[in-house]
Amino acid sequence: MIQITLNDRFAKNFVNDTLFDEFLQKSKKAKETLDSRSGLGNEFLGWVDLPSSIKNEDLKTIREAAETIQKTSKFLVVVGIGGSYLGARAIIEALASPFQYLEPSKKGVTILYAGHHLDSDYHSKLLAFLEDKDFSVNVVSKSGTTTEPAIAFRLLLSLLERKYGREGVKNRVFSTTDRAKGALKKLSDEYGFATFIIPDDVGGRYSFLTPVGLLPVAAAGFSISQLVEGAKTMSHHLKETGNPQDNLACRYASYRNALYSLDKKTEIMVAYQPNLSYVMEWWKQLFGESEGKGGKGILPASVQFTSDLHSMGQYIQDGERNLFETVIQIDSSKSDVYLTEKNDDSDGLNYLAGKTLLDVTKQAVLGTLVAHSDGKVPCLELNLPTLSEETLGQLLYFFEYACAISGYMLGVNPFDQPGVEDYKNNMFALLGKKGFEDRKKHILAHLR
């Protein structure tokens, strides 16, 4: 049974029935295209069946590697960029204590990240921090030549070799890469690193159920079995529910594209829990890279409420009316804080006595939804009963499936990212990489 619901009470008044029915039918056709594997990018649909195709032996192998990491290390550095780290980070940070870096987890290692940008201060401080720490590395890259993670891994590998020697490094590096080719695969074979495979037919932003996401999540001490089971439950619902009105992904994709047709060009993902910030970062990459092409696409943005209600809230309430919101709501909490009565009521908060912070948050959510709806901002609500491996598995798979449907409705290939290559090629040219001489001349011509 799926545990996620989509509430449209603050969106349906913005989309009339005729228009919504039109987009529901478009979503049905898009779903048929996805399920029949007859659309653009169909060579990258391996993620669709991942929840049901992952075997217990596969999970066992990943857990054994995670246990090895936990026995030898206090920290695991995940080296990757974009889809190579965002899925894992989204899950880990949603489930972990916000103070995990100050108090390393008792049931798993603390996860650190590298290679997701090029900042020299960050990486130099990371290396200095790890100098006297026991740590392992999980390097994630299909090719091994993506600049940001390749540089970070070279630095970390040098530190590992200096600390543990070449033989010791063998048991502290876990590579997640291509099955047969690429620089990282070649290096992994030379060193004898434990190697996990990124399937050829699964793109990075759709890879959270491959070892790309599962190994770091397991090393952090969370249940990858429950994560997969949640995704499997959602997969079954989305595939088997043919009526688009009842299909969670079809309804979400229909609202997105109907609102886009009404010039709502920006979708703001909203969460009231700080630990969902990387779920939103993962979502932004998923939809931005999948839909933003050919001069089309909804701009995915995110805000953290209630914090951003004191900054971005003004724009959302009164600014340009070209946006809509999707709000993730968590209905219950594993721990809550009760507010008590104070004798002198000097802070004026005695009216809250007996309530919990979750009670206050729920009313803040409702008050904000009403205010933004009154301010002509359509708002969709995604409700989860609680945050767990199972509900996160459902949520992330739902977003993947909905993204594919939405992309096909938009008329783009949801599984390529041609625009990303432009900056890479320009950077290679400026840094003097062989084969990019003509491009360097083109760039320099812009500077004259």
Q: What key attributes describe this structure?
A:
448 residues, alpha/beta, 16 helices, 13% strand, 5-stranded mixed beta sheet
How would you describe this protein?
The protein is an alpha/beta fold and 448 residues long. Helix content is 48%, strand content 13%. It has 16 helices and 10 strands. The strands form 2 sheets. A 5-stranded mixed β-sheet has the order 1-10-9-7-8, with helices on both faces. β2, α4 and β3 form a beta-alpha-beta unit. α3 packs across α8, α4 runs parallel beside α8 and α11 runs parallel beside α14. It is globular. The mean pLDDT is 93.
Rg over alpha carbons: 23 Å
Please summarize the sheet with the most strands.
5 strands, mixed
Beta-strand fraction estimate: 5-15%
Overall spatial form: globular
Assembly context of the chains:
single chain
Structural class: alpha/beta
Task: State mean pLDDT (0 to 100 scale).
Answer: 93
Termini separation comes to 62 Å
Number of helices: 16
- The ordered H/E elements are EHHHEHEHEHEHEHHHEHEHEHEHHH
With strands numbered from the N-terminus, the spatial order across the biggest sheet is: 1-10-9-7-8
Count of extended strands: 10
Helicity, in percent?
40-55%
In short:
The protein is α/β, with parallel strands linked by helices and 448 residues long.
Helix-strand layout with pairing:
Elements: E1 5-10, H1 17-36, H2 50-53, H3 56-72, E2 75-79, H4 86-95, E3 110-114, H5 120-130, E4 135-140, H6 147-169, E5 173-177, H7 183-191, E6 194-197, H8 211-219, H9 224-240, H10 248-261, E7 266-271, H11 277-291, E8 299-304, H12 312-318, E9 323-330, H13 357-374, E10 379-384, H14 389-410, H15 420-430, H16 437-446
Parallel strand pairs: 2-3, 2-4, 4-5, 5-6, 7-8, 7-9, 9-10
Antiparallel strand pairs: 1-10
Helix pairs in contact: 1-10, 1-14, 3-8, 4-8, 4-11, 9-14, 10-14, 11-14, 15-16
